[in-house]
Amino acid sequence: MADWAPVVVGVVLFVLLSPGLLFELPGMQRHVEFGSQRTNGKAIAVHSVIFFAIFTIIILALNLHIYTG
């Protein structure tokens, strides 16, 4: 039985936390921009740290598992 939780959580968080898709922190002209479809290096770094923190909390601290088969 394979544990699909890391894959599912990773894909969902990747889509939601893509810089410029829903929001961009920090933005090009403001601290937070919504739906700008642009990005910069600082935003990529911040979104990567947020992704890692949320992913770690969900997978390790909440002990989430999704089994198939």
Unreliable spans: none
Q: State the helicity in percent bands.
A: 40-55%
- Form type: elongated
Read across the widest sheet, the strand sequence of neighbours is 1-2
Quote the distance from N terminus to C terminus: 6 Å
Overall mean pLDDT stands at: 92
Number of strands: 2
Main beta sheet:
2 strands, antiparallel
Please give the radius of gyration in angstroms. 14 Å
Beta content: 5-15%
Question: What series of H and E elements makes up the topology?
Answer: HEEH
Structural class: mainly alpha
DSSP helical segment count: 2
Task: Explain how this protein is built.
- The protein contains two helices and two strands; from the N terminus they run αββα.
- It is mainly alpha-helical.
- A hairpin with an 8-residue loop joins strand 1 and strand 2.
- The mean pLDDT is 92.
- Keywords: Membrane, Transmembrane, Transmembrane helix.
- InterPro entries: DUF3339 (IPR021775).
